Structure prediction request, 1362 residues.
Amino acid sequence: MSKPVIKFCLNGRWIEETAVTSDMTVLRYLRTQQILAGTKEGCGSGDCGACSVLLGERIADDTANESSEGQWHYQAINGCITFIAQLDGKSLITVDALATKGSAKDKEGDQLHPAQQAMVDYHGSQCGFCTPGIVMSLAALHENQRINKNSEPADHHQIIDALSGNLCRCTGYRPIIEAAENMNNYHNNSVDVGQVGIWQPAMNHDASADTKSGLIHTASKIDIESQSWSPKTEDELKVLLAQHPQARMVAGATDIALEVTQMNRRIPQLIAINDIASLKTIVIEDESIMIGAGVTYSQMEATLNEHFPEFGQLLHRFASRQVRNNGTMGGNVANASPIGDTPPVLLALGACIELASAEGSRWLALHDFFLDYKKTQQKPGEYLRMIRIPRLQANQVLKVYKISKRLEDDISAVLAAFKFTLEGKVGAQTVTAVTSGFGGMAGIPKAAMHLEQTLLNQQVSMAAFEQAAQVLEQDFNPMSDVRATSAYRMQVAQNLIQKCAFELSNPNAVTRIESLDKSELSLSEVNAEVANHA
Amino acid sequence: MRKLIDTHHSKNPEQALKNEQRTRPGKVKSKGQTGQSMKHDSAEKHVTGKAVYVDDMPEYPNQLHIAVGGSAYAHAKIKSIDLTSVRETLGVVDVITVHDVPGHVDIGPVFSGDPVLVEELCEYVGQPIFAVAANTMEIAKAAVAKASIEYDVLEPTLNVEKALADKFFVRPTHQHVRGDSAKALAAAPHRIQGQQHVNGQEHFYLEGQVCSVLPTEDGGMTVYSSTQHPTEVQKLVAEVLDISINKVKVEIRRMGGGFGGKETQAAPLACIAAIVANKTGRPVKYRMSRTDDMVMTGKRHPFFNRYDVGFDDQGIMLGSDIMVAGNCGNSPDLSDAIVDRAMFHSDNAYYLNNATVTGHRCKTHTISNTAYRGFGGPQGVILAELMMDDIARHLGEDPLTIRKRNLYGIKHDHIRTAAGEVDPRNQTHYGQTVEQKVLPELIEELEQTSNYWQRREEIKQFNANSPFLKKGLSLTPVKFGISFTVQFLNQAGALVHIYTDGSIHLNHGGTEMGQGLFVKVAQVVAEEFQVDLDTIQVSATNTEKVPNTSPTAASSGTDLNGMAARDACLRIKAGMLTFAAEHYGAAEENIYFDDNHLVVIKDSDKESASEEKLRIPFADFVQQAYMGRVPLSSTGFYKTPKIHYDRETGKGRPFYYYANGASVSEVLVDTLTGESRLVRTDILHDVGRSLNPAIDKGQIEGAFIQGMGWLTTEELKWNDQGRLLSNGPATYKIPAVGDTPFEFNVNLLEDRPNREETIYRSKAVGEPPFMLGISVWSAIRDAVASLADYNYSAPMDTPATPEEILKSVHNTKDFMRNKNAIAKGQKV
Prediction:
């Protein structure tokens, strides 16, 4: 048995933790155990970003090119919904360590990181409470630009994306965006002597030796039942699950952590699966794309953008950058949220999933996985291993719509996804096959079977689709809640089907307010063309 | 000779202004004096995480943490309370109920109605009943859940319209009456009515409510509270503990945002923590979780507004009957003044003519609503803007044209007074004259710089060609009255020390919540002594340094504290100058401060026109003054002149002056889904002569986005039991970075010093720009109105969520269907 310890690097210093409870969050740990008060708690639910910290992973030797081999690569995450168990073997940087210490003797002030100096110079802070989190998100953007040898300043889209998980109530964001645009004009202190050790710490060989068995066990001072593990292989995971079927599995923990921080529940036994390499693979096959359950949203962005552009587009509105850096599609599916955002799309795409355990593994269609509100086919001892998504054929189109009060980082009132197989030229197409998935319309993510039947063999036109949309009332009887009323959900879902017809007939028209870009401010011409066409 | 306030009391203010202008420009300023865009004094501490907020202060090993148990029902009587298992929880040190309060139980800020802990009658879900003190916050929270409380559940009033019908009020109704609105309405060529529900708003300061208290050896309490009103916290803590005020010290270095939410709402935490600290003798911290904060602290008042307006063919208002009904929640708190302000601003920038404005203070069994940036003003202003849009659609005119015709101070040849003269149309319905005419010119400038009319044409074209995405455009102004409408609050104190090395210490009663108050007041002191800004150190707001302070609210922070600090400087300077005159043998008028020096012009040989100028470094001179036994420390004081208001008649001059601004917003609306997006905003805002343009601009932009959030994405939702459903950032959506407009042009109105003698002729900036966000809501209505060729104005409550917008779209489409049917002679 290995030593009961979690090892990680905090601001350049390796730390062994033996006495933290299994459900200790990074934020609470920093503020109460390390007395590092720079990282703030704004909401405790991963929605405001005030607790953003940088989590570094070493780029594995086999995937690295020569220059990046063994380099640490950092991403912003929310400290309030990340457990200490997920840090094993990783490097954590907090706002407290971002500036280079000035020398007191030479009366030098601290040398601020470009993200910090730009925020000061462009008046990016007012009350200052969200500022440490904003600085960390900007630092991540800056460092990643640098690692990618991109000396160009980040563009507007990248900046908005990097800050999508950071709420500021004072500034209205304009000066923060301006700071981001100008970060590159400052000297980067992370390459300075003294800072390199923080950003690129030497591997702690004791740590890797200790964690080799993959079983990390921590005992708490208060509660001796508290245990957490960070297995490194699926075999270890299977053993653990067989021994502790009641243990909770987390990959990104972006949802389960809320049980601790919002509902004040305890998670006495926790298995962090975010370090199992075999669950973090993406394989592109001829017929389908295989996405490991541990692949984060950030890691799958490029693949989705390439193969399912509207799915990729959805990710920009799906949670925040921090959540996408930790959260996984596997977690989204296994959690069976009725809204979910990715399950409806996966339903429309006809995805299958693989469930594995010590007993072996089985495949099933996602359709059959969801049973009832938060209930699935997953049995104790099983874990979600892989998601297989059939690739789109040349005559197939995926349409994805998300309706929410706020464009970014908001849970959908309605999510609608359709995969159409079409015949004929644009303007005179017929639906030869259609599959759908809806979120927010029922207790589980669900396909609209009546709608699918009605749309089959229809001509693509707004009138025909509007007519067909009426049957949606046979498929769903949505609920009223804090996000929307039942009537609105139904109405907007029906309208989206109309919109779908318009988009299929006018593939080049600008039809989404969220995809509106600075360059598309003047839409007159595009739409004039569309109007003529229609 | 020593002057209190060094200003020229000329009979003609415009002349006095010109005199000042002549003497001021062209002078080289030292680093950081007024008018320069100095960075926030804490900027470097913010970005490095070194800025200390209350929750960041080191904890004592024996510190206790609080969690509070609240009412499960909106309206209920407590039958019995059993806290045995709460007390027995491992790690719980003490549990208190109302019976543990040594002194006052009611901590209502102005009127009673806010018990610190409930004894019997619960009037909102979450109302505090007991508090648990434990070794950690987690233990305290877990223990709270173990309480067993039996209730007699009573019928709650949750609907403002029902409260209105039942005359269920927290305070009496108030009215402003000018002329005969009924007669004017009856005689008007056009007359329309409308109504709107304006929803509330959660402050969502990023730093939640928090305090930390420490019992003192004198039986008193040291309180660190994230509060905008330290003096009130001090007084209430003294009252609940039944000790004198001088035994309680309250200190606050900075808040992580306030927005009005920490004016009265911080006090209950401090009182509960102090009661526990007093009972246990241990330090206590009480930090609310975000959910508790959203459920247990007050918000912006929702309002139900109605208008009945009569106007001529040009859309000029002849008479109006206006009702604003604030949903105050369960207690008065500050609601009297908030509904007053809604009434004062229900004209916004427009001459109402014959008007009856009625303000109701409705009671509901929800959390007591409280101060929030604008303090009722926005809820009044939006009604005026609703009227303008509705009048415009009724007449088929562009709303901007109607707005301009109704502005204060715009004369119309055909509108005459009884004496036959052209009516100046410059007096508000409560009798205050709008003296400084800013808006007509400001709007004209903005109209041009934003290209309003050209874009109006482009948008019409776009909408004609776009099948379901529609654009909208709107320009809305704001005229906002500056002063606390409660007269006695318009006072402030400051304390300035100069130490023997020439460094200056500044303290005042204002609190820093991000608005840049500390740096602005420091700039004033730098200006007075003509020294660099870094000479000045500002310290935490502390009730032991400056007593009996008003809350930092009503946008008044800089106006009041800047003047008080200046007064302190002038008092010190007076002593210094007397000393210098004696010491250097020069006339006082020949001695002045300049560029970190004292300059002495020695009595010259006038014929030769040569003068001997002595330049003594500031620190050296301070040293000399100290040796010369000159007092180098002084308090300062200020009270706002000219203001008065008579509640009996509903007339007076409640405001020292008005701040003005206007914004033009362009939106894109998806009429199939109801989603909307802000594309571009242009703002021109009047801050008088800016003390710090960067800070002022920051206030304007932040306020605009916050105002936009109030009217678009931020939706407070309660269930039919009075439980708040939108109780966290997952369900309550404040604007995110992607909600900002692609193009955001914000400018300060230039060369428009305040007509009144405010601190260096600047104007308050905290609240007024909040109302610029109304242009977004109005632009969304404009986009929807395009579906009816701009001849119909569908109702749209706020916030304009996708659902509300789609409702408005369908309403408009129904109108068009009916209209077309009628045109075709069909029966509808």
In short: The two ends of chain B are 83 Å apart (CA to CA).
